[in-house]
Structures are given as C-alpha cells and as structure tokens.
Amino acid sequence: MGKKGGIARSFMMISQISISMLVPVFLCLFFGIKLNEWLGTVYFVPVFLFLGIGASIRNVYQLTRSFYAKDKKREDEELAYIENLKKAGERNKQRREERKRTEGKGE
After folding, report:
1. How big is the CA angle at 61 (ends 27 and 73), to the nearest 5 degrees?
2. Helices (H) and strands (E) in the chain, counts
3. In angstroms, rounded to a whole number, what is the distance separating the alpha carbons of residues 67 and 74?
4. Band of pLDDT at residue 1, cut at 50, 70 and 90
5. Does the N-terminal or the C-terminal CB of the chain have fewer CB atoms within 10 Å?
C-alpha cells in the first residue's frame, strides 16, 4: 500500500490546500460585496479580497509546513550526520599529519 497510500495522501493534501485557498478568498469577497451594498461604498471589496488572499497564503503555509515536517526532520538528521563525518575526516587528517611530523623528527 506504500505507493497507493502516498498517492491518496498527496491527493488529500491537494484537496485540502485548494479548499484552504478558496474558502477565505470567496468569504472575504462575499463580505466585501455585502458591506459595499449595505454602506453604498466601493472600498470594501479590494480590502477584503486582499485579506482573503493573505489568509489563504497563511493557511497554505501552515498546511505544507506540517505536511513536510517529517521530511525536514529526516533531512536535518542526514545533514548533521554528513557534518559529523566531515569533522571526523578532518580530525583523522590532522592525526595523520601529526604522526608524519613526529615520525620525521624521530629519524
């Protein structure tokens, strides 16, 4: 079920992102139109539209951050492991150079 589960999970994520983007935009647009009708102005639609777009961007950010949290944790662990290998390699290189110097003095 590995590949099918991944496909289903991705499809659910895409659906959730779509809903999280559309609902705030349309609700804010609706409220902006109703306020314009009620107050007889034309200023509320753009303001509420930008609020809806901002809310949808925030929602998508929150969803994708939690969706990829496991992958980021694994990637961070791999990067830390690589850094530790580099440090160990440098220490080994320094030890070899030190041994060469001490062997050279002993002769």
Report:
1. 155
2. 3, 0
3. 13
4. very low
5. C
Q: Which H or E element spans position 11? A: helix 2-39
Residue partners of 51: CB distance under 8 A and separation at least 6: 24, 28
Tell me the pTM: 0.59
For the record, the structure tokens of 46 come out as 């753009």
Task: Count CA within 13 A, CB hemisphere, residue 38.
Answer: 8
Burial 9-32 (b: 16+ CB within 10 A, else e): eeeeeeeebeebbeebbeebbeeb
Length of the chain, please? 107
